[in-house]
Amino acid sequence: MIIEEHALWGEEPTEEHPATYTAYLADPLTAAPDARRPAMVVCGGGGFDHVVSHEKEPVALAYLNSGYQVFVLEYVTMSTGDVAYPAPEADLARMVATVRANADAWRVDPGRVAVVGFSAGGFVCAALAAGWKTGPFAALAGARPEQVRPDAAVLCYPLLDLRVVRDEQLRDPRIDLRVPKTGGKTGRDLVMDYLARVAGEATEERLAEIAPVNHVDRYMAPTFVWGVADDKTCPIVQVHEFACAMARAGVTHEVHVFDRGGHGLSMANVNTRVDNAAEQAIVRPWFDLAAAFLERCGVA
C-alpha cells in the first residue's frame, strides 16, 4: 500500500484553500500491473467544525480492501478556514476532478469515481451528487461539470437539510435560556450563529437554496443512503424526504433505515467501536449493502 498526503489546490495549503487529502493506493498486482481500480473519495463528518478521525482511515482501509483506490478529503472546516457553502463542496468537486486528472498515475478508472460521506460529509457529497450539473461547483473547481460528477454516492447518516436540524433543535423550550460563557447568548442564538457560518446566512431562503434535496434531478448520480431512526443529530426525516425526491426524479437509489443506533457509527467494526457494540452490530450490514449497490451500478 502506498500512502501519500497532498494539498488539494496547489503545492501547499493556503488560507483561502486549506483543503488537503490522503491517497491510499494499492500496490500494483504482479500479474496485472496496469489494472485500473475504481476510486472512492471519503468525506468524514464532524459538524463542519473538523473532520473526525474514525470516519477517515478506517473507511479508507475498508474500501481499499474492497478493490478501490481511496482518497480521504480533509475539506475546509471551521477549524481550518471559511466553511460557508459552497466552499466544502468546491473542495469535493476539485477532489473528484483531481482523481480523474491523475487516473493514469493512480491506476484509476476515470469512469468509476464514487464518493462516500458521513454526517456533514454526507451533505457535501449529496450537494455535489445532486448539483454537479447546475450548481457552482465545477466552475469553482476550475473544471467542466462532467469532470466533477460522481459516478455514484454513498451517504451515511447524512445531514441533508439544515432547516430540519434547526427546527428539531429549536423545538426544546430550554433553547431560549441563556448559555453560560457565551456573552449572554441563548441556545437559539448559538444555533443561528452556527447555521450562518455553514450557510453564509441563516435565512429561510438561503437554507432552502443550499439544501441538496432541492436540487435532486434526473442527472443525479446513483445514490445509496442509510440512516438510523433514533438519530438525534441528523434526524431521519431528512433521509425519507431525500428518498422521495430521488424517486420523483427517477434517480437510481437504495435506502436503508435501521431502527436504532444513534449517530456517528462509521464502519461499525472493531476499528470504530467504542462502547456501543450492540448499536454497531445493528448497522454493520450497511457496508456490504452499499458495496452490492455500487457493483450493480457498474462502479465497483
Distance between the termini: 19 Å
Q: How are the strands of the largest sheet arranged?
A: 1-2-4-3-5-6-7-8
Average of per-residue pLDDT values: 95
Gross morphology is globular
Q: Roughly how much helix do the residues carry, as a percent range?
A: 25-40%
Radius of gyration: 19 Å
The biggest sheet, with number of strands, parallel, antiparallel or mixed sense and barrel status, is: 8 strands, mixed
Supply the number of helical segments.
12
Low-confidence spans: none
| H/E topology pattern | EEEHEHHEHHHEHHHEHEHH
Summing up helix and strand content along with how strands pair, one would put the structural category as: alpha/beta
Percentage beta strand: 15-25%
Beta strand count: 8
What would you say this structure looks like, in words?
- The protein is α/β, with parallel strands linked by helices.
- It contains 12 helices and 8 strands.
- An 8-stranded mixed sheet has the order 1-2-4-3-5-6-7-8, with helices on both faces.
- β3, α1 and β4 form a beta-alpha-beta unit.
